[in-house]
Amino acid sequence: MQYANRQIANLLHSDLNEVYLFHGTRKDRVNVLLHNGFDLRLAAMNFKSLWLGAGVYVADEANLSAQYTERNGVCTIFVMRVCLGDVFTTKTHMTDLKRPPCKSFCNGICTQHKDFFDSVVGEFPQREFVVYDDAKCYPEYVIQYQVVQSPPDHKGGYY
User: Fold this and answer.
1) What pLDDT, in 10s, does the model give residues 103-127?
2) Which of 53, 106, 123, 157 has the most CB atoms at less than 10 Å from its CB?
3) How far is residue 77's CA from residue 69's CA, in Å, rounded to a whole number?
4) CA-CA distance, 125 to 145, in Å (whole number)?
5) Which InterPro entries does the record match to this protein (predicted)?
6) Residue 156 pLDDT greater than 50, yes or no
7) Which CATH class, in words, describes the domain spanning 6-146?
8) DSSP alpha helices (H): ranges in 67-115?
């Protein structure tokens, strides 16, 4: 995400690879998430399968996060402060992940090594970032908006 205001970007800790990313949610969950934070045990409750396993999903494009909000009425997207740390990049689905892969690149869930990546980015048509520790992200800003239908095109245009 390109930061509109450099002062906001200066609040981030670049040595931790801390960034602002978007997370869309339904309106019935906004207050719970703001008061209690994210609970990774509930990550898969609305999805049959998660492309990058059970974690907190965020995106650098707001339109991707908007797909997880209501279709009508007021929609909510969080601007999340996320500590990505050392990022593992993949172009494949890794649905069994419960934490990032180990740095030795073991297949499956590694229990042998001590060095792990901190987050995962899926290089899909739109990038998705996942952190598997809810302490590495929190909703810093709330954006609420309403999608308005554009008026029908009249012959002769508008005046």
Assistant:
1) 988 776 777 888 999 999 999 999 9
2) 53
3) 7
4) 25
5) ARTD-AVP, Poly(ADP-ribose)pol_cat_dom
6) no
7) alpha beta
8) none
